[in-house]
């Protein structure tokens, strides 16, 4: 590695500096985050770093070398090995028993010690460390620093009479990374704002629109749902939890014009008959352009799910466009849902559900990786690659006395960035289901537009 710049770019590859939005210990938001500890895990880099640091100053001036714990300890050790300057170690806290020593190693009062620090920010922590070393009779005149965050630390230390030698400054780093295309003008602008002491304005990340989701969701059922949503200006799915074919068809006829999908629990229909129930339902779905979502919540091993999906009374695979499935049985259990889209149950709306953060994270990993899955049901945000379906929506009730918990469309769009709201009793139990569907459709669409 010939130049200092090439050396820095090698260091950068180890992930020592990240750009984005970080909240510092002080509560201040910073556009970058530095952690030089990974440098010690690459012996070649650590050795080169030690030599770059040693090259900055005349070594004859020093009798000892000491790193400020912890990040600079391996750096100081490597510098000692390269220069034969003896190493001393400064404890973070004095030993509580025995010698109560703060410095470990062999030294004598009056010796001059070179101090090594990874990053200097305000300089205050070095100003606390130096007197602890000086109290042992050691002289500190020079400090070598790998990265100066340019927040006044160097100047403060110099004003107290110390010589500070820095290998890189954050400005150097920005210039090098910008030259190499790793940083945009906007990011450099934010870093400069930050260094000038101004409050940094971060762009709020916006939710994706249905048009943007169309570009990233490649499952055909996801595409169809998004196209219907855009065309009908609706994100409403009505949950048709009625118990007869007549009620189901009447409801579908009323709400059909306003929905993207009709969600069913076909096993609660008392007079289910594939000709009398499914054929007219499919006609209505075609007439009003909505999809059929069977909320079967499969939760068994793959072989059983395959049978439940295609056999028995309901033969779901013959008519459903999308189905819900638990992912509790693991990745392969979802392989059987070949000709439909799967919406995975990631989190539930009911009180006391076991779908805690850990479960949701694991379930989301399966959902993201399985090609049959294009969405998830949840009461929390999920990754953009999956469409989010949120049940438990009702503008008039907070619950149903049986564990269901309700939220508003505004909550679902603003807080969860949902894609589709699912409304059952709020519509089919209302006096006028068509009117209610229309008002939930408008509320859902307004909430979606408001969240953009
Ligand atoms: P409601 O009448 O709007 O409460 O009906 C909600 C529907 O959504 C109902 O069919 C449930 O089976 C379904 N649901 C739910 O409410 N909560 C969940 O977490 C899941 C599904 Br998953």
UniProtKB/TrEMBL annotation:
Its cofactor is Mg(2+). One of its GO terms (biological process) is 'de novo' pyrimidine nucleobase biosynthetic process. Keywords: Decarboxylase, Glycosyltransferase, Lyase, Magnesium, Multifunctional enzyme, Pyrimidine biosynthesis, Transferase. InterPro entries: Aldolase_TIM (IPR013785), OMPdecase (IPR014732), OMPdeCOase_dom (IPR001754), OPRT (IPR023031), Or_phspho_trans_dom (IPR004467), PRTase-like (IPR029057), PRTase_dom (IPR000836), RibuloseP-bd_barrel (IPR011060). The active site is at 295 (for ompdecase activity), 297 (for ompdecase activity), 300 (for ompdecase activity). The keyword Transferase applies. It catalyses: orotidine 5'-phosphate + diphosphate = orotate + 5-phospho-alpha-D-ribose 1-diphosphate. Pathway: Pyrimidine metabolism; UMP biosynthesis via de novo pathway; UMP from orotate: step 2/2; Pyrimidine metabolism; UMP biosynthesis via de novo pathway; UMP from orotate: step 1/2. The keyword Magnesium applies. Substrate binds at residues 241, 263, 349, 404, 424-425. CDD domains: OMP_decarboxylase_like, PRTases_typeI. One of its GO terms (molecular function) is magnesium ion binding. Gene3D superfamilies: 3.40.50.2020, Aldolase class I. 5-phospho-alpha-D-ribose 1-diphosphate binds at residues 25, 91-92, 95, 117-125. NCBIfam families: pyrE, pyrF. Catalyzes the decarboxylation of orotidine 5'-monophosphate (OMP) to uridine 5'-monophosphate (UMP). HAMAP family: PyrE. Homodimer. In the N-terminal section; belongs to the purine/pyrimidine phosphoribosyltransferase family. This is Orotate phosphoribosyltransferase. The gene is pyrE.
